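PROTEIN DESIGN WORKSHEET
SECTION A - STRUCTURE
LENGTH: 311
TOKENS:
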């Protein structure tokens, strides 16, 4: 979406946007312009300034201008301080392609506009001897960026995550260092204009508890409350995520994993230029007013978990 924003939401979702995230159609353009003007005065931030990108951040912050500024700055700062996750995202690149074809993370097809989008992650479907957590993180964030760019409903309805940990081994778990978990938690919770409505773990293996206990220490209270661990109980999963949005492999009716994977690969290919162009946005710390920020400031990498860092 380029240029002036044109609303594609149904009347029902526009009403929900007013009630749940304080969106006022009369004031929307003014709020977008306010953030655009603010960005012009931030010498260190190179951001997308189209209506649609700015609106996503406003919605993710319930139209609090101050919170939107903080989150926007955090998003672009994270991008620049995590080049290993935000560079080399060309879906035609041989290594990137091989990882995308594993279907580690896939948005499930929408069933209806008012139904929350669901992201399915299968982090164990990779070989830990040939791929790294950086590869996984790059794929997750590429997928998330593209989904938020393409689906307007997410900013209003929020999103659910289904995390299938069934194939995870101790070798996978060993790669999930506290450093990586802290970085991912900071990015998703503080940098992204997301409204996460639930994280659902299914097929949890023996290696899961150790990793999850560390992960929990980085979650904010809201995410903790919305986290559900289902073991291998599909009925339990269906209480949180309706069958009609899940693939048949998870007791649902929404196509097969293979179909969804193929569709998503097509979407990624269709937006290849956008993904490559997107790498240029971020911050230049040498131009930041005041003190430059470092990874240690943002992710506490040199902090309490230094002794445990096995990268």
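SECTION B - SEQUENCE
RESIDUE ASSIGNMENT:
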């Amino acid at each position: 979406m380029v240029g002036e924003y044109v609303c594609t939401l149904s009347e029902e979702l526009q009403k929900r946007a007013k009630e749940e995230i304080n969106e006022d159609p009369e004031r929307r353009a003014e709020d977008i312009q306010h953030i655009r003007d603010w960005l012009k005065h931030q010498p260190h931030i190179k951001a997308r300034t189209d209506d649609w990108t700015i609106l996503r951040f406003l919605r993710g912050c319930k139209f609090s201008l101050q919170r939107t500024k903080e989150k926007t700055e955090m998003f672009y700062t994270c991008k620049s301080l995590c080049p290993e996750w935000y560079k080399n995202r060309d879906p035609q690149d041989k290594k990137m392609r091989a990882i995308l074809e594993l279907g580690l993370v896939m948005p499930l097809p929408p069933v209806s506009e008012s139904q929350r989008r669901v992201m399915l992650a299968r982090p164990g479907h990779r070989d830990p001897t040939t791929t790294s957590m950086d590869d996984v993180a790059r794929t997750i964030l590429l997928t998330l960026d593209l989904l938020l760019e393409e689906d307007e409903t997410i900013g209003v309805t929020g999103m659910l995550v289904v995390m299938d940990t069934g194939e995870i081994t101790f070798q996978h778990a060993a790669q999930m260092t506290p450093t990586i978990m802290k970085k991912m938690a900071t990015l998703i919770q503080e940098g992204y204009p997301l409204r996460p409505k639930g994280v659902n773990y299914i097929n949890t293996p023996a290696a899961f508890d150790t990793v999850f206990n560390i992960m929990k220490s980085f979650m904010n209270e809201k995410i903790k409350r919305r986290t559900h661990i289902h073991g291998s109980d599909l009925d339990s999963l269906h209480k949180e995520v309706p069958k009609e949005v899940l693939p048949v492999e998870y007791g649902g009716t929404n196509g097969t994993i293979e179909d969804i994977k193929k569709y998503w690969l097509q979407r990624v290919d269709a937006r290849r230029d956008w993904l490559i162009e997107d790498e240029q946005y971020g911050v230049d710390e040498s131009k930041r007013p005041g003190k430059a920020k470092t990874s240690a400031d943002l992710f506490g990498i040199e902090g309490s978990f230094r002794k445990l860092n096995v990268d």
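SECTION C - NOTES
The CA atoms of residues 5 and 51 lie 5 Å apart.
Confidence is low (pLDDT under 50) at residues 302-311.
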